[in-house]
Each structure stands twice: as C-alpha cells, then as structure tokens.
Amino acid sequence: MGVLEGKPQRLGGGQPRCPYCGLPQERVAGLEQDWVLLEPDMHPLAHTVLAEYRWIELSDGRVTVYGVCPPVLFQRCRIEHRLACPAQPLPDLWPWLTSLRGENARQAERQNDPEPPPPPEEWPDAG
C-alpha cells in the first residue's frame, strides 16, 4: 500500500445510501484500511459522545476513534450513521438510558389513552 497523497478518494462518486432508511451516508477511510459510514454534516462536541463512538477527522482526511477522556473542551467529532439512522435500533449505550427510553415509551402511550369518564355529578350516599 502506498502513502496517501491528499484526502482519500470516495468510491462511486457520490454518497452511498443507507440500506435501512435510504438516507445518505458519508464513506470515509479509517486508519486501519477500512471504511466508516458517518452521518453527513454532523459534528457534535466530542464530550457529548461516548468515547467508543467518537470519530475524529485527521489532517489527511481519514478518521479514527477518539477515546481520550475527557476530550479537549471544544473538540468536534463525527458519529456513525447507524447511531442516527431512524430505521435501526440504538445500541445499549447506557443501561439506565435504555430503561429510561422504555419507560418514556410507556408514558407516551399512556398519554395517548382516552381520558377517563368524568366523575358523576352526585356521589352516592356511602352512609
């Protein structure tokens, strides 16, 4: 393998589409001669993303996982499209978050239930 000159070229001339949701993904070369499918135009602050999901762009255009904790204060990173894909389930990032998401889903369902009937105008005499 030769040394990269400039940014790595993207294959196919355009952005590949996600087979699950059909949205575009950005295919970027990683350090280990692999390709990573990133969310296009998404650059969150690194401290808001778990270390193992945090991809940092290098000066030559390749990306690598950035596991430094805590990251540099204003460092930006990239995330894989699979984390943002609406058609794929999220990985279990934090067990408490997964539990919270489940409880929030149940709470949202309860909000959509019809209102209970209003109480009677006059209560019965219970003695």
Features:
127 residues, alpha+beta, two-stranded antiparallel ribbon, 2 helices, 4 strands, elongated, disordered N terminus
Your description of this structure?
The chain has two helices and four strands, in the order ββββαα. The chain has a two-stranded antiparallel ribbon with strand order 1-2. A two-stranded antiparallel ribbon has the order 3-4. A hairpin with a 5-residue loop joins strand 1 (about 25-30) and strand 2. The chain has helices spanning about 80-85, 95-110, and strands at about 25-30, 35-40, 55, 65. With about 130 residues, it is of the alpha+beta class.
Based on CA inertia axes, which overall geometry fits?
elongated
Q: In order across it, which strands form the biggest sheet?
A: 1-2
Strand content: 5-15%
Radius of gyration: 24 Å
Spans where pLDDT lies below 50 across 5 or more residues:
1-12
Share in helix: 10-25%
- Structural class call reads alpha+beta
Order of helices and strands: EEEEHH
Number of strands: 4
**Biggest sheet, open or closed, and with what strands and sense?**
2 strands, antiparallel
Q: State the distance separating the first and last CA atoms.
A: 92 Å
Average pLDDT level: 81
- Distinct helical segment count: 2
Detail the topology: elements first, then pairings:
Elements: E1 26-29, E2 35-38, E3 55-57, E4 63-65, H1 81-84, H2 95-111
Short précis:
By secondary structure, this protein is α+β, with helices and mostly antiparallel strands. It is 17% helix and 11% strand. The strands form two sheets. Strands 1-2 form a two-stranded antiparallel ribbon. The chain has a two-stranded antiparallel ribbon with strand order 3-4.
